[in-house]
Amino acid sequence: QSALTQPPSASGSPGQSVTISCTGTSSDVGDYNYVSWFQQHPGKAPKLMIYDVNERPSGVPDRFSGSKSGSTASLTISGLQAEDEADYYCSSYAGINNLIVFGGGTKLTVL
Amino acid sequence: QVRLVESGGGVVQPGGSLRLSCAASGFTFVSYGMHWVRQAPGKGLEWVAFIRSDGRSKYYGDSVKGRFTISRDNSKDTLYLQMNSLRGEDTAVYYCAKDIRGGGYSFDNWGQGTLVTVSS
Asked: Quick one: closest CA in A to B100, which residue?
């Protein structure tokens, strides 16, 4: 069982928006603004899409955005494209004793 | 650009040992903390270990504490993971990842991974 809770699946049609949630506790997501989101295509390494809740690394399209409210973080992908179909994982800093925790992952299907 | 290349994976019997390496290039290795993250077949990501840039502080996930040791050689730009007392549940692709700024908060670059299979 993962420390952070994500829905196992999500879907949307091309051009639509989809939001994936990531629920933690007051010891991780709720206590630190160090939530990240990763995209992983089959057989590939994860790729950082969002860090520090809502910051985008260079090269990541602005269709990807992040937010947080209390102990729940969210990734929103607007203007869905076929290449967005992938697994998405959230992570959060969780303090000195358990450094980083992950969500179980969400499989995004572009219909 | 940042490049991380893992090696050392393979098949090992339960109770055995293995040492993974991660050769880094394209950034100032000595300035960044480094992580190991693993992914069991068909499963999600699991953080394994983190080492600060100077190698003095190390942190481990509960499932590997006491069995795995993370280390680094800043003169060789190389990260290591010594894995002892291996179990079937350690079977996974092991990724090395560069910390986003050095404090152990997240990862901005990942290697391609190396597969470790623990089986008799």
From this structure: A51
CA dist A1 and A21 (Å) reads 17
How far is it, in rounded angstroms, from Cα A69 to Cα A60?
A: 23
Instruction: Tell me if B106 and A104 make a contact (CB, 8 A cut-off).
Output: no
Query: What tens digit of pLDDT does each residue of B39-93 get?
Result: 999 999 999 999 999 999 999 999 999 999 999 999 999 999 999 999 999 999 9
Give B52 to chain A, closest Cα distance, Å.
12
Query: Hey, what are A104's tokens?
Result: 């179980």
Distance between CA atoms of residues A109 and A14, nearest Å: 10
Comparing CB atoms, the residue among A34, A45, A57 nearest residue B112 is A45
